[in-house]
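Help! Submission page says 'invalid entity' but I think these are all valid:
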Amino acid sequence: MTLWGGVFSQPTDDAVRRLNDSLRFDWRLYDADITGSLAWADALSQAGVLTPAERDRIAAGLERVRAEFMEGTFAAAPGDEDIHTAVERRLAELIGPVAGKLHTGRSRNDQVATDLLLWLLSAQRRIVDHVCALGAVLLRQAERHLDTAMPGYTHFQPAQPITAAHWWLNHFWPLTRDVERLERAADAWRARCPLGSGALAGTPYPIDRQALAERLGFTAPSHNSLDAVADRDHAAEFLFCLSLIGVHLSRLAEDLIVFANPSFGFIRLDERYSTGSSLMPQKRNPDPLELARGKSARLIGHLAGLLVALKGLPSGYNKDLQEDKEPLFDAVDTLDALFPPVIGLVNTLVLVPERMRAALDPAMLATDLADYFVTRGVPFREAHALAGRAVKLAEARGVSLSELSAEDLATISDQTGDDVARVFDFDAAIARRAAFGGAGETEAQLARAQAWLARRRIAAPE
Amino acid sequence: MTLWGGVFSQPTDDAVRRLNDSLRFDWRLYDADITGSLAWADALSQAGVLTPAERDRIAAGLERVRAEFMEGTFAAAPGDEDIHTAVERRLAELIGPVAGKLHTGRSRNDQVATDLLLWLLSAQRRIVDHVCALGAVLLRQAERHLDTAMPGYTHFQPAQPITAAHWWLNHFWPLTRDVERLERAADAWRARCPLGSGALAGTPYPIDRQALAERLGFTAPSHNSLDAVADRDHAAEFLFCLSLIGVHLSRLAEDLIVFANPSFGFIRLDERYSTGSSLMPQKRNPDPLELARGKSARLIGHLAGLLVALKGLPSGYNKDLQEDKEPLFDAVDTLDALFPPVIGLVNTLVLVPERMRAALDPAMLATDLADYFVTRGVPFREAHALAGRAVKLAEARGVSLSELSAEDLATISDQTGDDVARVFDFDAAIARRAAFGGAGETEAQLARAQAWLARRRIAAPE
Amino acid sequence: MTLWGGVFSQPTDDAVRRLNDSLRFDWRLYDADITGSLAWADALSQAGVLTPAERDRIAAGLERVRAEFMEGTFAAAPGDEDIHTAVERRLAELIGPVAGKLHTGRSRNDQVATDLLLWLLSAQRRIVDHVCALGAVLLRQAERHLDTAMPGYTHFQPAQPITAAHWWLNHFWPLTRDVERLERAADAWRARCPLGSGALAGTPYPIDRQALAERLGFTAPSHNSLDAVADRDHAAEFLFCLSLIGVHLSRLAEDLIVFANPSFGFIRLDERYSTGSSLMPQKRNPDPLELARGKSARLIGHLAGLLVALKGLPSGYNKDLQEDKEPLFDAVDTLDALFPPVIGLVNTLVLVPERMRAALDPAMLATDLADYFVTRGVPFREAHALAGRAVKLAEARGVSLSELSAEDLATISDQTGDDVARVFDFDAAIARRAAFGGAGETEAQLARAQAWLARRRIAAPE
Amino acid sequence: MTLWGGVFSQPTDDAVRRLNDSLRFDWRLYDADITGSLAWADALSQAGVLTPAERDRIAAGLERVRAEFMEGTFAAAPGDEDIHTAVERRLAELIGPVAGKLHTGRSRNDQVATDLLLWLLSAQRRIVDHVCALGAVLLRQAERHLDTAMPGYTHFQPAQPITAAHWWLNHFWPLTRDVERLERAADAWRARCPLGSGALAGTPYPIDRQALAERLGFTAPSHNSLDAVADRDHAAEFLFCLSLIGVHLSRLAEDLIVFANPSFGFIRLDERYSTGSSLMPQKRNPDPLELARGKSARLIGHLAGLLVALKGLPSGYNKDLQEDKEPLFDAVDTLDALFPPVIGLVNTLVLVPERMRAALDPAMLATDLADYFVTRGVPFREAHALAGRAVKLAEARGVSLSELSAEDLATISDQTGDDVARVFDFDAAIARRAAFGGAGETEAQLARAQAWLARRRIAAPE
């Protein structure tokens, strides 16, 4: 039994019904739907539309429907075209015709908009927890490697030495932006409870929408009923936040995949977080990382898809908006599935400091050589050219930059002192970058990161 | 039991396993997988790796596994990480250790590449059938309205009169491009059977890959094993073809949605193909059309997502490629679900010729007035300006363009003859556009369309 | 002269140089670049790297370069591969070798990251102004039409009557979300000044990065130098904000384009904001609206493109990041070009209340009929069915819903009273939706909108 | 002077004009536009609309306009809103009022559709040449390294040895698919010349559209005038083809970027194709490769953007379609700029065979060990497990797989013969993959590739 048959003389075509029906994916809104209906029953009661007894009966019935969902005993019926219909149909079976009063002054348009926002706010909290948990294991790894030197790359070419902790922390801070972005967004979402907007024009019953909004955890009702039923900005914003999380995971994954290749050998994955080959017996593949990288693409696709669906729609609810849910659900499922393995993998992988140090080349200290000349009064631009010539000289001689003698260097600049050899110390070079945020103040940076995380109260997994 | 445990000392983490496992979506490759394995068993037998008896035993076992899938009795086991593992595991249960010979010289990399192509070729044929079936009902509608005049729009403003058949046919020809694009693409896909490429380096057994390819309906084997296992160009190309089909459906849907609004009232939808409102008893909503428009967005999102997943991958198989299947499957499911309702809706909707004619305004014949001046020797550019002035004069007078008298028009140009009134005949204006492809040769155009479709042998539904 | 030639023996290939060079588009960062360099010179001076005299000389030189850009007299030289090189090259020409000290402890990596953020913050303010200005003209239109009744649509089918003001306001509130989202985002961007991050590892000079950040209008420096030079989250976030603005414009445009079609005739565009046809003299096309709708696609494409560019990059600066600027610049240019015409068009268009009212159909009051039954004790679900039957009865009789007599209605429900005719009053139906955000409290809603806008101090254009 | 002012009383708003005007980007259609106009003048003449003298005068005038464009002397005038207006305006200046006859029976809608197709067909040929030229240098590199062994990777982990030629060729075959796809697409584009479709309804003059089409290099005219002016399928298809080319370039770039990192050291870039750092004197960065990878994102963004622009448009020309050109132009410019540096870089880079061979590990022959057991009758599945145990034993012993003695291996399987040591030969392992497309038949594969390329007659650059 649909909720709308009255004016129709003929049954809906089966293929139309199958296309239209959304219960196969929107069933997961059941909790939000029932929570919203409980609040609506309250509001109707306060508006004098329901008697307290009716309200109580409806509320008790709704809780029974919720219990059936939670226990897995809820049975869908043929006409259950969506979760709203399914819940109301079951409610009527349980409590009789009074169930028919629940939808007074309400439409599925404001109902689904509310359900989706409630679901979104709950998913947002879970995603924040995932992100913080990954942050926590990154910090644990950073803590272990405050003094491990490694090459820092730009253009994926050796650039300057950094600490492994600095590199780990470089993957931490983007996550803090992700969390703060999600927190800011959720604050905004809470300021626009759509319930009470009706189908498009508002509700003719004297509903106190501010109280209703607060009852559901919102801070305020939406301002315009026509906008409220068609607003999916929050869905797009959430998908954007998730896409950027995906991008950050993909960059972490790319580093780790490449560093796990034996030509680098910077990391060793725990066997529990790698997989083998059906053909090649020796393989240990970093599948979770490849999937993290690959699945970031899916998130971007979902974001694009939703924006496209919204583009060019006329005002008010259009059925195109039904396309909001599946990308959202899939995006959240994707991250729900992705974070635990990635967290476990990062938590258990082992860095190989000796391979990292072996990849350092004295030429990575050419900037320090230039800075040495600067301290002796050479303008940086000229010092840069001198250091470049030194690198070239070393290459021509077939030696490393640090193997050039002070005499060799003196042929390049008369500003070469006896102390020039002191330049060629990777650890000292790192320590010199002691300004805020530099590789030489990693310990302080780690403390800042830990303080940030402590405010979110998320513990790293063991 | 995975296919690759030998070198591992520890079991895979559960969350990793769940993330990695693809059986929940790749089970639908079962038919392709078994077809591919049958061909591979043949090839191994011809190469002397399997005896004929072993080959026969494996073939019989594979057919039993296929029967279990078709009958719905196949039971997944805990270690079945993908369809390939599941089939081989079940085969071993059914026929014993000889099953272990099937994977000789093969990898899941070339196996899945082959499975996906076989599935794609089959999905491609089904999509072509859908598109042709929609084409057929468009032609049926066009046939009914060869003489129905309606406004043609540009910029969604009235431009010139056309026939309704011409408008219907305008939605037909894009579908022919879709079909031909899919046919061309499939020809190319058939020229690169990846089976026999091994994991990346080819197979060390003397497999006749040309014969193997032909056995599977391909025309040739792939040229490079490393490329073959990582090539997903066909997946992207298929998603592009489907996206463009989606765009064409969305444009048809947009026209129909707007024309179904009572301010136009050009069409009436059959009740079986529209739905109602839970709040507003009078509503009849064109949901299938809105979903056609909305779901075109999802297809674009999937296309973008897959291209993103492929971008920047290193050579050879990477697990990111597992992200190819879900967007493909969902895109095909989407169109499988969308076409029947859209076809039914178009087939049953009723055009309202009197509303279409009522929307014609003589100002839409201003170009014909300009052309009239051209026939009397005025250069078109000047004639255009004269006709513009006539429109302005009519507006100033508050009359329609055709209500201007010959005298009025004579004040605008001395090239106005007594026969100028003959310009203002919508049907004659249509008939004048008799050059190939114009609104005045709709009947011939329809015949061309019917001939095109006849070559595809798809009948329209009743 | 590039800034980096020292180690190279051979000149760069011309095609590489052309591909690499970014001055053709990044010249527009000149103001940000010079502002950043002035702050850096200060910071170097405070750190004792520059003497006050050197700092002053550099500062004076930089201001001269800025003046050349502003006056249009700056002349690019062959080696000017980007804006940073161009500025430093010109500075050296103007002030001699001391210019070579400016780049001490700095890299183009932290420099360009800073420049881009400064530009972004400035563009963000301009976009906010555009959006508010559009909001202001929407409110002006709403103010004029507080009592104009029109059909509200869902599924683009007539649903319930609303006021034209309510419909206008429905396009206003999304803009407030856009503005608030941009404001929140900019607050976050200001908390991470990258200057002083060097190429990746930080700066070895004792720079006070907090003071430096504040000098540039930031609130704090970035936490990690490796992250800071590769962070483009703000660019993606800005493009997302712009994409959603584009979506909102596209929805406004869609409404207006359709309403401007004569079958609706709800609005008349001012001639200054429509254009004609080279062939059809009578045409008046809503080009700015079509471009608003069309250009929203470009914004979505740019967002997708940037996220794709970021996906899967290894840590640290990679040249791929150069792809951040063109989509950003084009997106901002697009909106800079789009808003003024759209604002002008909305400001000058004329609503046609009589056409809007003529499009109202009594069947749009079917929900009110159901609500009437509810007030007489019928549960809503049953009342909905009764109203549906009434609509059907009216259709069968060929009359409008309001033309059914009380007797006719009484055959449908014995809850029909003599006062049922009072249901069929469009204005009363609107007024009944008096709950917060409903069509019946448009005046209060308008006041809230005006208050919101007043806080942004943007006046509508005349 | 616009072409359409007649009916308008007021001038267009300046901001609207700026938004609308497309001459700043569509000027590059000048050649196509003039070519199309020449053909149209012929067609008008054959239809009796122009006298031969008029036709000749117009043709001569058009050639003069073309010459002005080619010589760079064409001067735009204030009213030149697009290339079509500009050309017709200039033509009128040059030849007087007869120029006003050229637009007879034509609209800018069919004109621009034709221009774009002509431009597209020409761009398509250039892109094919670029792709073939890259293919040629890949083959030249492959030719040099038929016997160079290197690790083949899957999951970016060492998998099996291959030849460097096989790896190079793995980047060649995708290019052949790109070329063939472009060729197939262009064949289809040529079958639908839109000229003669008018604004939407066709042309009222007796134009022989088949002859007109052939005059312009098409094979047939378009079938439906309404579709023809709004069809941008070819634009989307071209962008898809370019996106996939971009993806292929990005994968080549990713391999080369990683292989150029000293931890791999597989390749050395020529200095002419790498760049330095403003801060770090020793840097040699693979910028062209990073840009190839990064710019593939832009192409995907443009494809998505165009599909979004087309989605949901009503029938006929809408101004949104103006958004087709900029992404197309930019995509083609991007590849025009990208290919020469990438081709030069690939052509000049030097492979380092000794580093490639040093990265081979005997564990990569574990599959060959399994195959060895297979030759001795062990089913592959069991042989795979045995080889896995051998790898594990070697790891436990701290030796490489090839350092296990025959006795060690005998403890794993009694199928170990004295000849087992022969398995551990990288070159022999490669040679064993001799089936079609395998690493062991690279020479034959190269011959096939050369034959493919020879049919395209593109020579590699020196």
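Support: the input was valid. A stray whitespace character was the problem, and the output above is from the cleaned input. Residues 137 and 346 of chain D are 7 Å apart (CA to CA).
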